[in-house]
Specification:
heterodimer; A: 275 residues; mainly alpha; MetI-like fold; 15 helices; 76% helix; 1% strand; B: 360 residues; alpha+beta; Rossmann fold; OB fold (Dihydrolipoamide Acetyltransferase, E2P); 6-stranded mixed sheet; 5-stranded antiparallel sheet; 34% strand; nucleotide-binding (chain B); ATP-binding (chain B)
Chain lengths: 275, 360
Amino acid sequence: MTAQAKQTQGRSFAWLVPALYIFFLLLPIYWLVNMSFKTNTEITGTFSLYPHEPTLRNYAVIFTDPSWYSGYINSIIYVVMNTVISVAAALPAAYAFSRYRFLGDKHLFFWLLTNRMAPPAVFALPFFQLYSAFGLIDTHIAVALAHCLFNVPLAVWILEGFMSGVPKEIDETAYIDGYSFPRFFIKIFTPLIASGIGVAAFFCFMFSWVELLIARTLTTTDAKPIAAIMTRTVSASGMDWGVLAAAGVLTIIPGAIVIYFVRNYIAKGFALGRV
Amino acid sequence: MLELRNVSRAVGGADHIRNVSLALERGTLNVLLGPTLAGKTSLMRLMAGLDEPTSGTVHFDGADVTGQPVQRRNVAMVYQQFINYPALTVYENIASPLRIQGRDSATIDREVKRAAELMRLTPYLDRTPLNLSGGQQQRTALARAMVKNASLVLLDEPLANLDYKLREELREELPKIFAESGAIFVYATTEPQEALLLGGNTAVLSEGQMVQFGPTVDVFRRPVSLISARTFADPPLNTLSVEKKNGRISHGEAVTFPVPAHLQHLPDGAYTIGIQPHHLTTRATTPHTVSIHARAIITEITGSESFVHFTFAGTDWIMLTPGVLELDPDDAVEVLFEPTNLLVFDMEGRAVEYEFHTAA
């Protein structure tokens, strides 16, 4: 068998594994999209691979009913707030961890990480009690701050990796050239870790977007996130499957958009900049 | 004038610099010579103000600048690694210190173009440093140090990571380029040869201490101690413990010769002699020539010279001799040297006092 023939034969099966992989990955998403364009009768009544009577009613419900679309607005508000706060707080912290040795630095770094290891349920009760005391319940900032507990350590962790990849001599050269710290940080340093900031922001966004327990505990009506609204859609007339599926589709979209922008850095982000 | 007064620096219990005092004049070229970890970089960081001394003070033109932030000192530094601002173009990299100084853009443009011309970077001004070769990156760093017109220029092994040809070129140009400015020029290197090629003054460092400071050629010819002589010898200095007794200097039966005139005044006793590899020869020269009967271990021939490793009386020495000298392992070889070329140290490793006779 020639090398050419061997290669061709290898190629003829090469598509199979990725195809299966993608099929299984995309199946639930396809089914969700499929459902979102069906009527409730079709969803509950028959098994169909595609909508026989495609309808936009489900989406129309969401975009016209304030109790639905306000959920998206609420979620986006506190997620963006949280992302901004987390990254802004993590930048100086990560710089300190990557550049200075100080008393207990390693312990502190590890302790930050342990915050991520505890299940959110552990913190739901103290948060509720604390925020009640300060009258913060059912505000966007309450959820944004609560999510910082998980996202700041994560952002510090990611950014520290990216920052440690920048030689310390670059900092020193800038100081020697006469740069003040803020000017150096903005003009010289930030462009070098821009991808790290993007990845950190992405992870903060995603964790905050998908987190349900704390967000639901700390909100009642005004700041209620979409995920919480989705879990309370059992009406008198039973479950509104189509609307729920449409809401699910709309929930996936922001994440997909963010992933699109940071797709080239995700791998590096998972390796914490140490690639 | 830059003055270090009894400067020490300890980090986490380890002494990086121990009690160094050093005065460097404006318009001079000063070489810091020492092996890796001798404290060259640590000393430079103290001079620059990147680190603060644990004890001692740093003075510049008479004023105490200890603890003054590096931004407020007029220094420039180039590292062994190629350090530039990756996000900025070569042009902006070179312009960066001038922008901070708030110069007008015409001046900046003129200065940057002049530095780029000298460093042969003109065609690359629009690129970013990471798209350049190592040599070009380092020349960008040098150009940035140059435009700043600093009163103290610190170069930490700037040519160590460059290829041979570029090193030779830059080594010739660098002192010239910076000499015009009248700055204090400090150059760290691990290579004795580089120190001699650069000239100026040399400070020999060893284990965080300054062993000797003076004009480079003087330090090379007249090391004050065994450590200084060893640091400043490449290939390594040949040493031998000897005894001076009854008008002879001898190491057992293997080496014995009458005490030369310039060492007559030394009291009898034990000494260490040192001799540079290039002072050993195989051809007789004067009536005072001392001869050693040795066996060759290996010869390395570079073409213009040969390194002969040989052994006698349990001691291994190296001879550096011009031309090609081919010896097979274990061949007998007669090695000769002039007693006037000897460096003599007492048992504490200090060079003994004597009249210096010949040029090295």
